[in-house]
Specification:
The protein has two domains: about 210 residues, Aldehyde Dehydrogenase, Chain A, domain 1, CATH 3.40.605.10; about 170 residues, 3-Layer(aba) Sandwich (Aldehyde Dehydrogenase, Chain A, domain 2). The chain is about 40% helix and about 20% strand. It has a seven-stranded mixed β-sheet, with helices on both faces. Strands 1-5-4-3-6-7 form a six-stranded mixed β-sheet, sandwiched between helices. Strand 10 and strand 11 form a beta hairpin. The longest helix has 17 residues. The protein is globular and about 60 Å long.
Length: about 400
């Protein structure tokens, strides 16, 4: 069969289409495995060279997993919660770390897992797979080889059908077209699909709170914004593509963007010449169709298109690579008519949390999460409005 096996090292397709008995949620061996993987990521020079992997390692540390377990147990006190069974994860091509988050949450819930990584997966995926195999080779974790299978295959519908037929849940990450294609492949009537489709995100800045920042403080804000934006070439769903200002004078805005551009001088953004060309083509094509202005910058690593909300939020196609739409508002509810289920994350600076809660709680049609600038890419078990710990377990009632 046209399958490339990554985890475990020794495998063949006979095992891939076989159900494996699940474990209990938060089994001790799984918690130990995940926390050891975290330690390995943080300590390995090849892994910790990537900022995204450091964030991954921090999320999986033992204290974090224990807090996650405590929250799960409090929420489900008095209930019987068991794993769903076999979970099939289809990972996206644009964010190398998502497959690990998806896998480990499911593993912590006790499920057996089959993960399809993209044939276009990058070096980070390769490093993570190598680290997984190293740990699974240890005697104390060898039994978990039955709970984790990672493979890659192209557009082979027969393989997709066979794996889909045995799974109890399918977690699909990707573009709308990919999700539509995979969803059309039948699963068992007793199984469920959890879909994470294309989403858009933006940053919300309060100029009044940015204005008094000293140089060190605005540089700190700028590097947090750069980390949110330039990881994965700005193509992660939670990477901001729009910057919305409240109380933002021209002087405040220029100072912020100058600080961002300064940080890019030393940031390993990994943008290619093709990224730059795509950005120019995209922005010039938009200029033909829409009323926009370009903010002056020193390099093509940063491109800012100044326009109104109507143009910004209706231009949902986006090339990433350090291009931002910039608009101004005088109140938060001015955004509300433009927001829908296509919008995922708002990263913010200079707003009180209770003000944001009041805004969102007023029946806002859109937005799944609101986080401080610098935390846009941080992963949480509640993602796109889905609580994965609930979706990947089942409840048994006893009357």
């Amino acid at each position: 069969m046209d399958i490339q096996y990554f985890v475990p090292k020794q495998n063949d397709h006979k095992h891939l289409f076989r159900k494996t008995k699940p474990l209990l949620p938060f089994s001790r061996s799984v918690v130990d495995f995940v926390s050891q993987f975290s330690s390995k990521v943080v300590a390995d020079p090849g892994l910790k060279a990537y900022k995204e992997l450091i964030a991954l390692g921090f999320w999986m540390r033992k204290g974090s997993i224990q807090n996650y377990q405590k929250t799960f147990e409090i929420k489900n006190k008095g209930k019987i919660k068991l794993a769903r069974g076999t979970v099939f994860h289809i990972a996206p091509a644009n964010v190398d770390t998502i497959f690990i988050y998806s896998l480990f949450i499911s593993l912590l819930m006790g499920n057996s897992n089959i993960v399809r990584v993209s044939t276009q997966a990058g070096q980070q995926t390769e490093l993570l797979i190598h680290a997984l195999n190293d740990l699974l080779d240890e005697k104390r974790f060898a039994h978990l080889q039955e709970q984790i299978q990672i493979v890659s295959f192209g557009h082979n519908t027969e393989i997709l059908k066979k794996i889909s037929a045995i799974c109890d849940a399918r977690v699909i990450w990707g573009g709308d077209e990919t999700i539509g294609l995979i969803s059309s492949t039948p699963i068992s009537p007793k199984a469920i699909d959890i879909k994470f489709a294309n989403k858009l995100s933006f940053t919300l800045l309060n100029g009044k709170q940015i204005d008094p920042l000293n140089d060190k403080e605005i540089d700190s804000l700028a590097i947090k914004f750069v980390n949110d934006s330039y990881s994965f070439a700005q193509m992660a769903c939670s990477s901001p593509r729009f910057v919305i200002w409240m109380n933002g004078t021209e002087a405040i805005q220029k100072r912020f963007w100058d600080a961002v551009e300064k940080q890019l001088d030393s940031y390993d953004h990994q943008l290619t010449d093709m990224n730059m060309i795509n950005k120019i083509v995209f922005s010039y094509s938009l200029a033909i169709e829409r009323d926009i202005l370009f903010r002056s910058t020193q390099s093509n690593y940063l491109m800012i298109i100044r326009t109104d909300l109507q143009t910004a939020f209706c231009s949902c196609s986006h090339c990433g690579s350090g291009l931002f739409f910039e608009s101004n508002i005088d109140r938060l509810d001015a955004l509300s008519p433009f927001l829908n289920r296509d919008f995922q994350t708002v990263s913010y600076y200079g707003f009180e949390k209770n003000v944001l809660i009041e805004w969102v709680a007023n029946n806002l049609n859109g937005i799944d999460r609101i986080v401080p600038v610098g935390q846009a890419l941080d992963f949480y078990p509640v993602w796109d409005g889905f609580d994965l710990s609930e979706m990947l377990t089942r409840e048994v009632t006893v009357l």
